[in-house]
Amino acid sequence: MTSTAILGSSISLNTGEARIGTRSAMDFAYWASAYVLQGNLQNDGEYGQDTDSAPAISWAADQVGVEVPTTYEELTALLIHVDASDAIRTRGALLIADSRIAVCLSVSMVVDLINGNYVIRRIESLSEEAIWNYGGLLPGIDY
Q1: Which residues, including other chains, have CB under 8 Å from residue 61's CB and lie 6 or more apart?
Q2: Among 41, 103, 128, 138, whose CB has the most other CB atoms within 10 angstroms?
């Protein structure tokens, strides 16, 4: 099996078996974006079908060796709560709004589930920041 170095860690290019040797927020954010960029393969490429981003977050966390629940309720119960304004500026932090969860990739860039499709997008304004109820950090991820 072929492997390559990403962020100083050796990973398998077979995403079904990929594991990196660190639990860093940067690596978690990488895998969250990889979920989008690989065409949502966990959903057999059926765009517009997802209603809950918790399974994608669980998959990304699993890639760095952190096990988290796959349902919204269980995942949000597990989080360490932080202010949404802090989470927006923290790579790998989660943003929570009602039944929606987004993953922060960098300052104001997020992986978000909109109309059943995963997208990578920029949070453009303070008024848009206000839609998030709170932020969350996953136990086991190094922020």
Answers
A1: 28, 31, 67, 68, 138, 140, 141
A2: 103
